Amino acid sequence: MENTSNSSAKDGTAVEVYGSFLLGDSELAIAVDMLQEVVDYPSNVTRSPLSPEHLLGIFNLRGTLIPIVDLRGMLDIAGEPCRASSKIAIVNLGETCVGLMFDATREILRVQASENIMFEQADGAKGVIGGCLKLDEGERIVQILSVSALLGIPEVPHMRQRGMSVVRRAPQRQTVAFRVGDTQLALPMEGIREIVRVPSMHPSPLGDALCVGMLNLRGDILPVIDFARLIGVGTTSADPSVDDVSDDRRIVILKDDAVYFGLLVDEVSRIVGYRDDQLLAMPSYAQRHVDWFAGCLADDDGGSLILLKPDALCGYARIKQIAHGHRQLYKDRKVEALGNKGTTRGSRETWVTFRLDQLFGVPIGRLREVIDLPDEIVATPGLPKHVLGVLNLRHELVTLLDVRTLFDMPALANREMAKVLIVELQGEKHGLVVDGLDNIVTLDTAKRIGVPAVLKQQAGQRLAASLDGCIEVPGCGTMMLMIDLEAVCRQGAHALAA
Questions:
Q1: Do residue 309 and residue 373 come from a single domain?
Q2: Which residue would you say has higher pLDDT here, 24 or 167?
Q3: Is-contact 255 124, C-beta < 8 A?
Q4: Which of these three, 159, 187, 211, is where a domain ends?
Q5: How many CB atoms lie within 10 A of CB 113?
Q6: What are phi and psi of 373, to 5 degrees?
Q7: What is the CA 51 to chain-centroid distance, rounded?
Q8: Which residues lie closer than 8 Å to 115 by C-beta, 6 or more apart?
Q9: Cα separation of 370 and 179, whole Å?
Q10: Which is nearest to 308 in space by CA: 99, 58, 44, 48?
Q11: Segment 224-277, tens digit of pLDDT
């Protein structure tokens, strides 16, 4: 707040205190007992799925998710905000906490009862503008914003709870993070069947706007859902090309007993480890599919990662209808496509693939998480070339190994897309720096073959000692080299000792 108003109470006269704000050409006041604090517009705002236009997004304020509301549309105030200079007034009523965006703060107003004119509707209820302050002998009129009336509007977001119960010593889980438009989302690893590159798809005969096509996945015909359209953050192109190697889009495959479908996303970015006690509660607005969201994770860069519930997505009536329609149309296609070929159920495993000139892969169960290569790495003098330094990952030290250098490969020219595979060996965490995350695939490991001797001879001693076989990746006709993570870490430790 800037200056203090000249309005003052006579001795013994009760005063009311308000904070005043500017929104376009209007001056609005909020009772200070409803104000928690005023902050600058945050640098990291996560757009919330399925949200109305006036909900600009959510941000993390000291462990609490705060939804940001733009009042312009509600109050019919023209103009576009300048978010760089905007202020967020955090208001709360009971357990509800919302951030209201204003163009600027003005001052603290101390007013007498005679300067406060309250409005009432015909039914006795208060409107969003609950009254006005008549200041400077009527020369200045300030509208009073009724927080209780505002938060009573169904489309204004509410926190379902102020916090979540803390689970002591909660086990770490894994989630796959991906981008849809400007929104960062994630699904728990156990809910994902696999993730594939976007192939050429056939048009869907059902004509549903959510379905961008259908995919033949090893004999199964399944619909592909436009996830951006589903969660209300735009739409994704319905004409993905398998020939465009730079295309980051992926199809995340979900399946339960009743439905089998894919979600088209813009990019699969990383694998994130989390515990249940790290989840923050999501705000809800008009009960729009609140059961889709498990909560929100604070990201390392100050942003937020919204965690979805796969069972709730699978249970969504429209998705079930689309999946059921395709299953009925093509219910005999799988039998015809597979013939007598069988797969041992227990031999299917999920692998993370990445590039080091060639395609490599590691079992996803052996990874703690996958993160972006950080800018801040602590490097001490005298380290060997294959050790980049030490990373502080949520108060745990991780030794970063440059896998290219370790395997005597040429250095990576551009590390902007580099990823770090976090693994743990005998209680010590290591980060293996690779060119980038390529895919997450489900493979029939019974089809693993040994690495040819000529390839081992060309690979070099350290790489050859770290190879555990190779296998063809279905759908792309490429052989993937299977990496033994423990062997890589041992090679790095031996080279360090040498």
A1: no
A2: 24
A3: no
A4: 159
A5: 10
A6: -70, 115
A7: 15
A8: 7, 133, 134, 135
A9: 15
A10: 48
A11: 999 999 888 776 655 544 444 447 888 999 988 878 999 999 988 888 888 887
**CA–CA separation, 437 vs 359, rounded Å?**
10
Query: Within this chain, do residues 299 and 216 fall inside the same structural domain, yes or no?
Result: yes
**pLDDT tens string 315-335:** 999 999 999 988 887 765 544
Residue tagged 């300030």 (tokens): 142
Please tell me whether residues 214 and 279 are part of one structural domain. yes
How far apart are alpha carbons 332 and 155 in whole angstroms?
45
Residue 495 has pLDDT above 80, yes or no: no
**Does 166 fall in a domain?**
no
User: Tens digits of per-residue pLDDT, 326-366?
Assistant: 888 776 554 444 344 444 445 678 888 888 888 999 988 88
Query: Does 167 map to a domain?
Result: no
The domain boundary residue, chosen from 338, 356, 376: 338
Q: Torsions phi, psi of 23, nearest 5?
A: -140, 105
Residue 478 identity: T
In total, how many domains does the chain have? 3
Termini Cα distance of the chain: 62
Same structural domain, 278 and 350: no
For the domain that residue 105 is a member of, what is the CATH number? 2.40.50.180
| Residue 459 domain boundaries | 345-497
Instruction: Write down the residue that tokens 């509301």 correspond to.
Output: 69
Q: How far apart are the C-alpha atoms of 323 and 341, rounded to whole Å?
A: 25
The CA dihedral of 150, 154, 156, 160, to the nearest 10 degrees, is 110
| pTM for this entry | 0.66
Task: Give pLDDT, residue 173.
Answer: 80
Does any domain span residue 165? Answer: no
Indicate whether 126 belongs to any domain.
Answer: yes
